[in-house]
Amino acid sequence: MENNTINKGNQYIMSSYARFPIVFDKGEGVYLYDTNGKKYIDFVAGIAVNCLGYANAEFIQGVTDQLHKLNHVSNLYWIEPAVEVAEKLAQYSGLDQVFFCNSGAESIEAALKLSRIYSQKNKGEDCYEIISMNQSFHGRTMGALSLTGQEKYHENLKPLLTGVKRVQINDFESLQSQVSEKTSAIIIEPIQGEGGINPVDKTYLQKVRELCDDKDIVLIFDEVQTGIGRTGELFAYQQLGVVPDIVTCAKGLGNGIPIGAIIAKKKFSKEFTPGTHASTFGGNGIACSAAKVVLDQLMEKGLLQGVKESGEYLRSKLEKLKEKFELIEDVRGMGLIQGIQLKTPVINIVLACMEKGLLLVSSGANVIRFVPPLIITKEQIDEGISILETVMEEI
Ligand code: PLP
């Protein structure tokens, strides 16, 4: 069917996304409605972003109140919401200081710069190498892309940043073999989100932590996708018993209002002195008012506890599907970031579910990723999973 919005979109917006032919109009809770009035249950949440779902009353109130007061003044001055959010992030993370930016990729750039500045000032000019992981995803800016361990994203973009080495996750020997006096930082996603929902072993991470301590290497956890409550703790590392030197976050922090941040130990954060790094919009009033509501809901109003329970429930439902369908090879994840790996590409299942009113997103060709709003209830999980089950029976 002809759709004017889609036609105009194709004419005026660059084609860097393969969009599904749906035009969304509004949302409520975990449901989205398209312009034809069709209702969808959303297991995508704007790709692990909308933790409070849609039209959340506290969120609307918090952001609207701030809009009435002030939106943006730049980082030439102080504003209360930014300081309040920074204090909360530092306290809840067990780290010390925050730098605000606007997206996941920008948080990676900030972590990259902070670690290089630290290493070059303290260990020498030659200490600039970063080790990242195969199958990782860190974003699309040139620095973040250079760390990303998936060749398909590098096509036609070389040369990338020099001094990046890549190793396989959970293979400590291979990591050790790449470490030298030139190693500035190691960057790891505790669960690889775009790369197929691949969790990293706790014991591996503990060994990496020891290695970094031993050689004064900066350990960065990229929690852009796993952070802000998605795994059942504010950060995934809080379940793994390993504290990074720098953690990056974005997605869930603003519930859809763009905001990113790094949180670092003082030993490293103190290297960001005036002039070393900046972002015009970073930490503006609107973004920080959104983050304030998100952190309040998660940490003070019991949402985090809810994620633990609903995450376990979702996991048990997916395990049951695996018992029923031979097509499912594996179930993996933590809290409300779960994935099922199929023996075949998942696109037809994603499309058939969409047709029946369930939104899903893949993670690579063979994995379906489940990252619903964190407010999802057990009944709503049942509702979505029963659509998936019907589709899998039909297929
Ligand atoms: N890091 C991780 C782990 C991500 O999943 C993503 C985005 O999916 C990014 C970084 C980049 O974030 P953004 O798209 O906000 O730049």
Describe the structure.
- With 395 residues, this protein is α/β, with parallel strands linked by helices.
- The chain is 39% helix and 18% strand.
- The chain has 13 helices and 17 strands.
- The chain has helices spanning 4-12, 45-48, 57-69, 80-93, 104-123, 142-147, 172-178, 202-215, 266-269, 285-299, 303-324, 347-355, 378-394, and strands at 24-28, 31-34, 39-42, 97-101, 129-133, 164-167, 183-188, 191-192, 198-199, 218-222, 246-249, 260-264, 328-334, 337-342, 358-359, 361-362, 367-370.
- The strands form four sheets. It has a seven-stranded mixed β-sheet with strand order 4-12-11-10-7-5-6, sandwiched between helices. A four-stranded mixed β-sheet has the order 1-2-3-15.
- The longest helix has 22 residues, at 303-324.
- The chain starts with a helix and ends with a helix.
- The relative contact order is 0.16.
- The model has no long low-confidence stretch (mean pLDDT 98).
- It binds pyridoxal-5'-phosphate.
Short description:
Helices cover 39% and strands 18% of the residues.
Give a quick set of tags describing it.
395 residues, alpha/beta, seven-stranded mixed β-sheet, 17 strands, binds pyridoxal-5'-phosphate
